[in-house]
Amino acid sequence: MKPVLTTILVLSLLNGAAVSAGAQPRDRDRDERQSQQQDRARPDGQRWTRGDRLPGQYRQRQYVVSDWRRRGLRPPPRGYNWVHDGHDNFFLAAIATGLISEAIYASDREQRWNQRYRRTYSYRDDIYYRECRTSSDPAGVIVGALIGGLLGNAAGDDGRRGGSTLAGVIIGGAVGAALTRDMDCEDRSYAYRSYYDGFNAGRVGRRYAWSNPRNGHRGELRVGSYYNDPYGFRCATFSQRIYIEGRWRDGRGRACRQPDGTWAIVD
User: Fold this and answer.
1) Which residues contact 177 (CB under 8 A, 6 or more apart)?
2) Which strands, in side-by-side order, build the sheet including 169-170?
3) Its pTM surpasses 0.90
């Protein structure tokens, strides 16, 4: 009788071990399914917020925001990256886990911009575009899409354009009119190149000069400082000096980057 009981006991123990061993893969499968469900993109219209985890696809290199300073974002802490979702929305997420600690949505930035600067400027507000788009353009302002928004060349948030394409410039309003009132269309074409290069360079104090060989008019732009305003927008103070008709004329102003990435003269 003893051998029989021993055999039954051994078989019971082996079966129990087999059941335990078999349960482990099922538990791992369940955990993996739960992880995949957490990784799936949110339904349209639903926002990711602090504590959510970004889907794995948005943790790939092409979604990492390397020029966070130019976009008015704070420095990412150690172990975190700013990433975007291809729709002008930014998320500060842990590199290892994708957990979100901060979310900034484009609609919120547009609202904050309008609260601070009253309106968003488009290329239709630009002095050069309105008055000179059918005139001679020796510096290639129109063809090169130096004016913000032309040909979809505004610095977007799709990773590629935002990192490699410089932001267009919009010079409108009273300050824009004052800066360019003594220039003809050819002068403005050359001057716009200096605005475009100067604001995008990120260098303080450097001189960006232009000259019109046809009439001898010339000028220069200098950026005095870069800073983030209280709403987090990247801004630059600048001074301009132009020589036209035997006289030097000086001007000053401030440009800030709108939510779409374009530099706009705000005052």
Assistant:
1) 127
2) 169-170, 263-265, 247-257, 234-244, 218-228, 207-211
3) no
Q: Sign of the C-alpha dihedral, residues 184, 190, 192, 194?
A: negative
**Can you list the alpha helix ranges (DSSP code H) found in the chain?**
2-39, 106-117, 127-132, 160-164, 173-180, 185-201
Angstrom CA distances, 166 to 24, 85, 150, 195, stand at: 54, 20, 13, 12
On the CB side of 67, CA atoms within 13 Å amount to 21
Q: Within 10 Å of residue 17's Cβ, how many Cβ atoms?
A: 10
Q: Cα Rg for the chain, rounded, in angstroms?
A: 29
* DSSP per residue, 163-212: HHSPPPEE--HHHHHHHHTT--HHHHHHHHHHHHHHHHH--SS-EEEEE-
- The pLDDT tens digits of the residues spanning 240-262 come to 999 998 999 999 999 999 988 89
Instruction: Determine the pLDDT at residue 74.
Output: 80
CA dist., res. 49 & res. 104, Å (int) = 9
Measured distance CA(258)–CA(27) in Å, rounded: 49
* 189 vs 139: CA distance, rounded Å: 5
Q: Give strand pairing partners of 263.
A: 169, 257
Q: How far is the C-alpha of 75 from the C-alpha of 92, rounded, in Å?
A: 10
Paired residues of 218 in beta bridges: 211, 243
For residue 36, the tally of other CB atoms under 10 A from its CB is 11
Q: Domains along the chain? A: 2-105 (3.10.450.160), 108-265 (no CATH)
| Separation in Å, CA 73 to CA 27, 57, 90, 115, 237 | 41, 22, 9, 18, 19
Nearest-angstrom CA–CA distance, 148 and 155: 8
